[in-house]
Amino acid sequence: MEKICYSVKEAAQLIGVSSSVLYREIREKNFPAITIGRRVLVPEKMIREYVEKKIQEAKNDEQKK
Predict the structure, then answer these.
(1) Hey, CA dihedral for 13, 53, 35, 44, is it positive or negative?
(2) Domain boundaries, the chain
(3) Cα–Cα dist 53/14, whole Å
(4) Which pLDDT tens digit goes with each residue over 8-50?
(5) Residue 53: what are its φ and ψ, rounded to 5°?
(6) Roughly how many angstroms between the first and final C-alpha of the chain, as a whole number?
(7) Which of 37, 47, 51, 59 is the most buried (most CB within 10 A)?
(8) Which pTM does this prediction carry?
């Protein structure tokens, strides 16, 4: 069975940032996550969408220069 949600630590490793950076982004509502009980989980779909969004933002920034 394929994983549909990752822990913050796992998601941070996939993206290439520290867990504390990802927790901050989640807390500031810049990164989507869900809470089940006391666990904070990041759906796999949200990781992909977030990365795609950041790639698009970087492309737009480059075009402005």
Answers:
(1) negative
(2) 5-64
(3) 16
(4) 999 999 999 999 999 999 999 999 999 999 999 999 999 999 9
(5) -60, -45
(6) 45
(7) 47
(8) 0.82
